[in-house]
Task: inverse folding
């Protein structure tokens, strides 16, 4: 399991290509729960206030 | 084998005008396209009245070797005729922006790598956001969503296109792809609240599109949607190429998801072209794609005709092993990048899907939904969860939940904001999209129409002397091919005479 914790994309050799930016490994484990809670607090402020009406009003026509 | 291949994406955006549920979606879509063309100006987008060059469109030609009778086709299949009620533009980045049925659609320019596909796919989001800003400036506030379902029976598409050699028999391609597409969703599904086409059953599933797939192979894209679409419209030299038109995928907002969608598929196509595709045959692919989508624990197995039962991750592992066996010793950087993400995501999904927050769309969305369920004690049928699902894909960076997660670094970025901003105006350099896009920016006013494989010039405005430059080879017209020529000509007349000379 410990080995799995470390598994993440290896940085490519070429210097011009950025490695994935977010610290994926750190985001895992214990920090994850707190991360999600922080996120919920953050997005609470932008959520549609009347969810039922919003969902009801989101009607699309089919596409390809 | 390499991940390099001519490829691109198409996105049909969900569109609403809040407070006006009766607004005509075709009208709203037209507003978006026209607003971009007018706001961006003539050097960035062809005027929407210019039109599309339909001469080479063949939506009823079936890759299995025949053509559907026009009289038998659904009206929605007749995409090769100009509809004066809709709007269409070709952009300086080589993309097409137009009204497709009832949605604004951005078709990205042809690119050569999955990383480029990520960049020009996200550029499309910025293009339509710019249109929304123009409309907002006029007091009309529309919203656009990068999703594929409204939860009430309607599904709209996010498509992928891949150029493949004509010599590979279509049914060989289909046979190699079906098990892969059934399994691929666990890497690249967008996640959806609700099960069934009308969200009849409360719950969460992996794919937006799975419940709307009703056939294994077929020509249709709006009814009886197939896992493998047979539309044979190469937009290139037909004797040499097919364009594989993939309609089974979801719109992905995580860059890693988009990279894997295009990258793994290109690698599997490479296997099929080499005759090295795994010999897997599902007993019931349509039932399998839904069963896998409906189980976010990833334990669901599906039956093969040989009697085995495999999970999606096990099927993908068979493909991954075949890719490994077939790879040469020299793996290019673009291929290595895709393989590293494939391996890491598959390994993490197998241990605990939540490890893939920020890389896999459905996992990222599910983590947020589960957070709300825990905190507020919500059942899956609660409309707040359905609202979060929709708002997840709102493109507005202030309101869209995925956009906010990207802004706060919770979604892994592969493309920088600067790369995406550049791709809004600049075409990719290594395909004919470069010529198409440069014509729009350099010869504003003299390009009358364009398509994937042509640019139609009107050298003297208002005359009937149109000149059509054909581009049947997607790899020609790159910056390397034609950059020096474009830099050297004084105008369209010069360009046209130089092109004719070159061809002689």
Result:
């Amino acid at each position: 399991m410990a080995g799995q914790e470390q598994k993440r994309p290896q940085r490519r050799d070429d210097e011009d290509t950025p490695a994935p930016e977010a610290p994926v490994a750190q985001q895992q484990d214990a920090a994850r729960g707190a991360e999600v809670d922080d996120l919920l607090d953050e997005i609470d402020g932008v959520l549609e206030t009347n969810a039922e009406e919003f969902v009801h009003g989101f009607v699309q026509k089919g596409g390809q | 084998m390499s991940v390099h291949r001519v490829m691109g994406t198409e996105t049909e955006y969900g569109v609403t005008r809040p407070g006006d549920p009766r607004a005509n979606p075709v009208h709203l879509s037209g507003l978006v396209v026209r607003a971009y063309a007018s706001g961006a100006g003539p050097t960035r987008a062809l005027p929407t009245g210019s039109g599309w060059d339909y001469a080479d469109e063949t939506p009823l030609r079936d890759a299995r070797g025949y053509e559907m009778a026009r009289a038998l086709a659904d009206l929605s299949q007749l995409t090769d005729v100009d509809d004066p009620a809709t709007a269409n533009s070709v952009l300086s980045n080589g993309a097409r922006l137009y009204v497709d049925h009832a949605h604004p659609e951005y078709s990205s320019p042809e690119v050569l790598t999955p990383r480029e596909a990520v960049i020009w796919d996200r550029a499309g989001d910025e293009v339509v956001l710019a249109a929304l800003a123009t409309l907002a400036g006029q007091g009309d506030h529309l919203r656009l969503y990068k999703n594929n379902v409204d939860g009430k029976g309607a599904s709209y598409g996010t498509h992928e296109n891949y150029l493949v050699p004509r010599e590979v028999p279509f049914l060989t391609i289909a046979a190699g792809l079906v098990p892969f597409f059934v399994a691929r969703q666990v890497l690249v599904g967008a996640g959806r609240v609700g099960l069934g086409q009308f969200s009849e059953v409360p719950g969460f599933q992996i794919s937006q599109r799975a419940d709307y797939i009703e056939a294994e192979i077929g020509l249709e894209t709006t009814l009886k949607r197939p896992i493998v679409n047979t539309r044979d419209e190469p937009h290139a030299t037909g004797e040499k190429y097919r364009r594989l038109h993939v309609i089974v995928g979801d719109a992905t907002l995580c860059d890693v998801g988009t990279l894997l969608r295009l990258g793994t598929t290109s690698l599997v196509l490479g296997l099929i072209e080499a005759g090295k595709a795994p010999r897997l045959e599902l007993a019931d692919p349509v039932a399998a794609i839904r069963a896998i989508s409906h189980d976010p624990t990833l334990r669901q197995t599906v039956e093969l005709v040989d009697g085995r039962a495999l999970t999606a991750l096990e099927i993908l592992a068979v493909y991954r092993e075949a890719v490994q066996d077939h790879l040469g010793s020299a793996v290019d950087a673009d291929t290595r990048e895709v393989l590293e993400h494939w391996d890491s995501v598959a390994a993490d999904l197998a241990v605990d899907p939540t490890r893939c927050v920020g890389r896999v769309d459905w996992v990222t969305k599910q983590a947020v939904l589960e957070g709300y369920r825990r905190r507020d004690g919500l059942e899956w049928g609660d409309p707040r969860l359905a609202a979060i699902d929709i708002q997840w894909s709102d493109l507005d960076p202030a309101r869209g939940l995925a956009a906010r997660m990207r802004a706060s670094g919770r979604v892994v970025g592969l493309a920088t904001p600067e790369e995406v901003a550049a791709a809004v105006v600049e075409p990719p350099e290594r395909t004919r999209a470069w010529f198409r896009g440069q014509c729009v920016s350099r010869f504003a006013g003299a390009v009358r129409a364009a398509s994937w494989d042509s640019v139609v010039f009107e050298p003297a405005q208002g005359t009937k002397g149109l000149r059509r430059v054909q581009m049947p080879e997607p790899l020609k017209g790159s910056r390397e091919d034609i950059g020096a020529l474009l830099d050297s000509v004084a105008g369209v007349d010069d360009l046209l005479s130089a092109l004719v000379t070159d061809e002689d």
